[in-house]
Amino acid sequence: MPKIIFDIETIGVEFDSLDEKTKEFLLDYAETPKEKEDIVNGLGFSPLTGRIVAIGILNPDTNKGAVYYRSQDNKYDKIEQDDVQYVPCKDEKEILKHFWEVATHYDQFITFNGHSFDCPYLVIRSAIHKIKPSINLIHNRYNRMPHFDLLDVLSNYGAVRWRKNLHMWCQAFGIESPKAEGVTGDDVARLFKEGRIFDIARYCYGDLKATAKLFEYWDKYINIR
Question: Is the pLDDT of residue 174 over 90?
Fold first, then answer.
């Protein structure tokens, strides 16, 4: 069964670009400057106030993958490093089109926390661009097809209190984490502002490799067929 692991990286829009009513809604319950700052810095977590700047895919059977990312310098030459292709795109719409086109060749889509984040984000951003998904990734969370969320399975579908992030799961199972190099999802917006979009693309692929190793560990030591 052909399967891929995928992951997205997002940033928020500029707060001042939002209309006044939206700003009012967002800041309605913020009482301190820190709370306001957290809301402004968290705009990338919602597809209503955020944008996708990179989507990475990895075939765990061939260990080959690609990252489609938004170019900031109007250069669109592909970059190949080892078994990954980095494909610069002119905008978010082109990134999404690449993903949905590739998706037609696979049956299972593996994520870490995709049920709560990646899948709905992808679908909503695609709808905003009037792009219809080629695969239904929004479905009953207890089904493992076509979308399989590792975090959901490892945390008994949210029944436990210790869901934790990818880095902590990797640490527990002795898997190299991309966060160990000092970059986390919280740094994506800053890196984008600094023009370091390729660093975001590489970080995205690091997440994919870690998720692939975690999936392999789950399949070998936890999964009961």
Answer: yes
Tell whether omega for the bond before 120 is within 30 degrees of 0, i.e. cis. Answer: no
- Dihedral of CA atoms 83, 214, 139, 117 in degrees, nearest 10, equals -80
- Asked if 8 contacts 122 with a C-beta cutoff of 8 angstroms, the reply is yes
Spell out the residues 6+ positions from residue 86 whose beta carbon is closer than 8 angstroms to its own.
Answer: 66, 67, 69, 78, 79, 80, 198, 201, 202
Residue 158: predicted pLDDT: 84
Nearest to 172 by CA among 151, 157, 188: 151
Residue with tokens 């765990």: 60
Question: Which stretches of 125-169 are assigned E, i.e. beta strand?
Answer: 147-149
DSSP state at residue 142: T
pTM for this structure?
0.94
Three-state DSSP at 177 gives: coil
- What pLDDT is stored for residue 182 in this prediction? 62
Read off the tokens for 144: 């493992």
Strand 50-59: give its sheet, edge to edge: 79-81, 84-89, 64-70, 50-59, 3-12, 108-111, 147-149
Q: 1: pLDDT confidence band, cut at 50, 70 and 90? A: confident
- Average predicted confidence (pLDDT) for the chain: 93
Q: Identify the band that residue 181 occupies on the pLDDT scale cut at 50, 70 and 90.
A: low
- In order of their start, the domains of the chain are 3-221 (3.30.420.10)
* C-alpha distance from residue 151 to each of 71, 121, 168 (Å): 31, 17, 12
